[in-house]
């Protein structure tokens, strides 16, 4: 926690009883493609309006609206650095800086599972051990890596489908299969995480929902929207249609290995949400690790030194530096 930040920026948001829970609020904030892209840029030090406009293919009206909503949500802090004419920059806060595990998980998933990037994603470097690394998700209680199938998840005191689905939907700008690429964009993560209903549907898949009608009823979403999201997920290979030998008239969809590999993003997002949005009834989701039997808190470690990762210890390796290092080792 940043002791230099104003007190109101270091405190979690207390939610009213009976309303949207931590997951619903998290999806309402992060389940938006522009929000994720702006935060990605801000965490890399791009804080001024003109810089953001240059870095992203975004209109003035959308950028202005997102910066306003991010400031209201305490993910960015508006700071006026010039008075005549007025100029402001948008600085990261403890709330946004603590998103680094989410961004780290997204980065690694795209590196491993999305080969169609216009340019290869650069490596990440762990300053503690001095090596380039890949993050490993482990159980904090026992320190062992785990697979999604080893996780038992159930609704907590504030958990339900109705309370976990955000109150509004986000209009999509593009489909990943259309072949468009934008600066700094993680295209397939956006297909899953950059749309509120997509995020909710993916969470349902991890909780064992497979039937079309169950997706529709649990999420309270119209069938055309569910069909669109399922079609998109099958197109990028995170879900696959499966036949039910007993009921061939049932449409079922299961996670693929690529889909299950997205779990670290889900785990990091839930942990962030439960920390910053506190329901009076208690957490939205309770997870247990089958292997050790303890309540699961997912953390990330370095695959080289096996030490827990911290945001300040992780840097992106520029492509030229990585190439020079590789040639030197050869």
From TrEMBL:
InterPro entries documented for this protein: HTH_HxlR (IPR002577), WH-like_DNA-bd_sf (IPR036388), WH_DNA-bd_sf (IPR036390)
Q: Give a yes or no for keyword Signal in this entry.
A: no
* Keywords, alphabetical: DNA-binding, Transcription, Transcription regulation
* One Pfam family, short name: HxlR
Q: Name one GO molecular function term.
A: DNA binding
Keyword Cytoplasm listed: no
Identify the residues that the record assigns to the HTH hxlR-type domain, covering every copy.
Answer: 19-118, 182-281
Q: What's this protein's name? A: HxlR family transcriptional regulator
